[in-house]
Amino acid sequence: MKDAVVPGVTGELFAPGDASGLAQAVIRILERGLSAYESGLERAARETSWSRYVERILDFISSL
Question: For the chain, is the Cβ count within 10 Å smaller at the N or the C terminus?
């Protein structure tokens, strides 16, 4: 999912094939610490869970 990574919230982005960008992203993550991303990752996991997916489908069907 393209929008799953939000810079500074759920991870860091870099351009495909950009080894230097990858290295910089890893450095940013390590400097900030994994706990800096915890709440964003938990929220993303809830929003993309199967139960949330089913809830959205049922909401859509109900709106028809």
Answer: C
